[in-house]
Q: What sequence folds into this?
């Protein structure tokens, strides 16, 4: 969630909130947005039995096409260490998060995960029909800077994460991404019969043999031979395993599988009709992200089509966190190496994207986008949060009467809200809700006490430096007189293991598949291409163990070059060098940043959840 920020602690709240906001002022500065009267993306019950919710396209999609509005990514760091004994329940975000390496966070933290809020954590995985993948995010804070903006660390700079189609997807088709086989293998108790890619390969090999049998024994006088044989095989293999669940379901599916393969034979089972989706689904693209109309508020959510009063702005399925103290961040006790609960320095950033109540330990975190972009306006909100209608898939209305201890034992999602319009909202108009007076008071206090961190004037994130690959990188020698900010570190593609020969290596194509390893730029060379542009290549030396320890760096792949060895690489193209940040130095990880949950109204927060009264 975005918050209204100030350029100076002395700026008054009235200036921050801009209470004179009108409908015209709250229109997106980008009015050249293509508008679509019909819903293009739905949230509805998955076509996979017992899989909960899924997302479905409302229009035909071509390969390499964005499926939905881009997502935000919120890092979460070292939960097990910080939460310790407070984490006496299943942390649901674990099931909905991505590996840090998937989004460029693997050098940010010792242990953590990436929460892709939106389509990134909503599609299911059906290895028969993987039709989409996640792209890479962008990173910036919309011109906010830690030297002058108190709110820069209150929202994530990881954004513009797009889900892209791998192939044509018909209207009504469910979106599937690959979770990775480890996701299923690590959940063997619940996922032991889910087919993996190798199981479809096994079935395809079996079908080739079946096709040969049919060709050998099928004759005009035994027309039903193939069908009878298949029914016999299906009966014999009725016990559920990964392989048997990869078999075509019916004889008709078998005929298709013999032509297109076993996986594709499942395609008809992965769709809902558009009429069914309009009746049973919830539209996910009524709003879209953009730069907020509120000065320094970062990004916001804007209506992508007319939304009438009482109409759905966005669905909000929720992940519940039974005890919000698991999001606390602590300093290390130097004697024990464990957390020092007397020295809390902040809270996880995800707190700012969750709802809570002053009389409860419970947090409710919507995981749809672009609802995560909706800003606060306590004076003129045009939307509000209500409980989803009874009968909404994956909304267990009876949970509203469960106490917190009961919710601790539940390891699946089952709560949901809707963001609804409190008046007519015009296309392109920014959407606001009221985060509550307690949130506002906490923000007022924060900005009144805020001062910029030390040495912040020249700060630039390494990821922002990475945004422009045409800029020449400074060598170690040049940085003596013109240094980067202390957080910036460079990574080259290099893999070290014990016994690897030290010395000089010249870059070769294909080495970009090696893991990232910290390096120092020692030399820059330039050439002019035929079109007159300058291209740079670099020489670099890999960091040793003590250098990495001193600089608080990690090698994501594991083994570290020992002191005394020199590993040099020459002629590295700029595209093979990544500017990153030292661990915990991005704005998202700053100590004592603004953290506060959005407050859900008293009239809809159940009494059963008020365990702090």
A:
């Amino acid at each position: 969630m975005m918050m209204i920020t100030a350029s100076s602690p002395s700026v008054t709240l009235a200036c921050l909130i801009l209470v004179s906001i009108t409908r015209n002022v709250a229109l997106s500065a980008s009015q050249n947005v293509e508008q679509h009267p019909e819903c293009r993306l739905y949230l509805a019950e998955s076509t996979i039995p017992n899989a909960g919710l899924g997302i479905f396209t409302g229009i035909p999609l071509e390969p390499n096409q964005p499926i939905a509005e881009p997502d935000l990514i919120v890092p979460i760091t070292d939960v097990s260490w910080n939460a310790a004994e407070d984490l006496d329940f299943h942390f649901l975000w674990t099931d909905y998060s991505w590996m840090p390496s998937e989004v460029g966070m693997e050098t940010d933290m010792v242990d953590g995960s990436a929460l892709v809020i939106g389509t990134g954590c909503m599609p299911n995985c059906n290895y028969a029909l993987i039709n989409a993948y996640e792209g890479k995010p962008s990173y910036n804070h919309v011109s906010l800077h830690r030297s002058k903006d108190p709110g820069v660390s209150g929202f994530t700079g990881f954004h513009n994460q797009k889900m892209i189609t791998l192939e044509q997807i018909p209207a009504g088709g469910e979106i599937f991404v690959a979770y990775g086989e480890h996701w299923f293998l690590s959940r063997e108790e619940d996922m032991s019969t889910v087919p993996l890619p190798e199981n479809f390969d096994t079935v395809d090999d079996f079908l080739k043999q079946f096709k040969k049998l049919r060709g050998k024994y099928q004759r005009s006088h035994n027309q039903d031979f193939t069908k009878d044989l298949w029914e016999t095989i299906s009966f014999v293999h009725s016990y559920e395993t990964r392989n048997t669940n990869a078999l075509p379901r019916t004889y008709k599916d078998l005929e298709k599988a013999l032509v297109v393969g076993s996986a594709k034979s499942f395609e008809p089972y992965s769709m809902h009709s558009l009429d069914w989706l309009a009746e049973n689904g919830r539209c996910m693209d009524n709003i879209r992200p953009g730069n907020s109309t509120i000065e320094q508020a970062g990004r916001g959510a804007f209506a992508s089509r007319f939304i009438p009063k009482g109409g759905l702005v966005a669905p909000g399925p929720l992940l519940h966190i039974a005890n919000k103290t698991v999001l606390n961040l602590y300093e290390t006790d130097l004697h024990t190496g464990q957390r020092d609960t007397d020295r809390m320095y902040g809270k996880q950033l995800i707190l700012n994207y969750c709802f809570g109540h002053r009389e409860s330990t419970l947090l409710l975190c919507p995981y749809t986008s672009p609802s995560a972009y909706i800003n606060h306006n306590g004076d003129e909100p045009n939307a509000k949060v209500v409980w989803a209608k009874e009968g909404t898939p994956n909304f267990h209305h009876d949970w509203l009467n469960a106490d917190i201890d009961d919710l601790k034992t539940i390891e699946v999602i089952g709560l949901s809200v809707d963001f609804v319009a409190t008046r007519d909202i015009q296309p392109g108009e920014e959407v606001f809700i009221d985060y509550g007076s307690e949130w506002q008071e906490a923000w007022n206090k924060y900005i009144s006490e805020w001062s910029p961190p030390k040495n912040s004037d020249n700060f630039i994130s390494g990821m922002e430096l990475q945004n422009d690959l045409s800029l020449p990188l400074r060598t170690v020698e040049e940085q003596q007189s013109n240094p980067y900010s202390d957080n910036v570190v460079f990574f080259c593609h290099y893999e070290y293991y014990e016994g690897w020969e030290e010395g000089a290596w010249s870059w070769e194509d294909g080495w970009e598949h090696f893991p990232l390893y910290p390096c120092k730029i020692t030399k820059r060379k330039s050439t002019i291409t035929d079109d007159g542009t300058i291209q740079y290549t670099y020489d670099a030396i890999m960091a040793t163990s003590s250098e990495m320890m001193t600089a608080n760096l990690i090698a994501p792949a594991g083994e570290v070059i020992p002191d005394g060895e020199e590993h040099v690489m020459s002629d590295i193209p700029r595209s093979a060098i990544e500017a990153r940040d030292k661990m915990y130095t991005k704005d998202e990880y700053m100590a004592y940043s603004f953290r506060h949950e959005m407050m859900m109204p008293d009239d809809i927060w159940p009494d059963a959840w008020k365990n702090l009264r």
